[in-house]
Design goal:
single chain; 485 residues; alpha+beta; eight-stranded antiparallel β-sheet; five-stranded antiparallel β-sheet; 14 helices; 25% helix
Length: 485
Amino acid sequence: MATPTTAEVGHASKEPTVVEIDGFRGRLISADHADYDIARAVWNGAIDRRPRLIARCIGTADVVAAVRFARDHDLEIAIRGGGHNVAGTAVCDDGIVIDLSAMRAVRVDPADRRAWVQGGALWGDVDHETQAHGLATTGGIVSHTGVAGLTLGGGVGWLMRKHGLTVDNLRAVDVVTADGELLRASEDEHPDLFWALRGGGGNFGVVTSFEFRLHSVGPTVLAGPILWDATDAGEVLRFYRDFVRDAPDELGTVVRFGAAPPLPVIPEDLHWRPVVMVGTCYAGPIEDGEQVLRPLRASRTPLLDLVGPTPYVGFQSALDSTVVHGWNYYWKSTHLPELRDDLIDVIAEHAFSCSSPRSYVAMFHLKGAVSRVAEGGTAFGNRQASHAITLDGVWRPGEDFGDRDTAWTRRFFAALGRFREGVYVNFLGGDEDPDRVREAYGDSVYDRLVDVKTTYDPDNVFHHNQNIRPRFSDGVGGSDRAGFV
């Protein structure tokens, strides 16, 4: 038997207690550890939670040991992959964080176009390895986003219209269930669980390894943003609506409303100027992409056109410095239909009325391969929506924009009320109405998720997430959290 890992764990009012986890070989980090504050911090600096113990795993066996330990001691469980979720679900108060951040290995089989990725990897890790072979799968648009959280919620990214969501490219997973058992889930093994993990979030277990299907992408793609002045927002959106309606699946676009960030590629005279920015990535031959994008690039004389051949792996990290770890984030989000004129008017009216220069709005064009998967084919819901929009209040620690930009996101969200068509579960914040989780899936998918939850986690052990409650549950995953004994 492996030597147990030990840590001193306690509260200010109690003497520290030595904790041992049998079979655990990683690091146990408690409140008196020098690295505790670093280890409990997540991407969203507005989240300030104090777990009793952080179990930094170095392998699947550690995850099994940590889950069993948490169950034996009736501890609240949070699961940390990349720690990037805006709601801060990767960390909890007074419980245990099962931390996979040291598990970041990626292995690629270029001949079979497959990749195996550990549960703590970031998308930058995946792109780095797969692009060495000119391959990729749909990932996020920020390289320090965690693979686990993005995948389990669905996986929106530049390649989704051509190659589907991240979950549409998932072939199998290794998952530790609520009873501490390790299962492999795929179309052939525990298919009900595999279905639920493709969009149902962290409700069903701790995924320690993902197997992805890869596609030929890059290593050079035609990509980059086009910028227009904010005063042109309405007309730009009307042209954009007509342009993307018939755009080929190879073209992925994200519209960003906000101040132009001070990136090195943007001239200084445009820094912090309110702009409409259409980010583009063409997942096909560069010469074809140039022809497809020509009308958009010529529309209304852009302030700046940065579209050109670029390394895909570099493009995936181009926005990293605009969404920095430790800044404060407050989001509201919804899916939207095609951009009718009245919807465009609402967006143009509200998008630039934030206070912080770092706040922004991002709108992702869906359709293509996303909508060709049948509703209920995976647990990702609302596949027929045209766009996903997220209203992102952002301010640095010590800045006084928080109250104003939180109010801005709520006003804007309320103004979009009559256009709402579901929501991407990964964009839900920490103060949402519980009914929004059902809204993320639709009734039939949600009810099926409840059935799977009841089978694999009837006690709602994994509830520190956008929670899907099992049948006959009070929703809190246990009634007495007395702590270590």
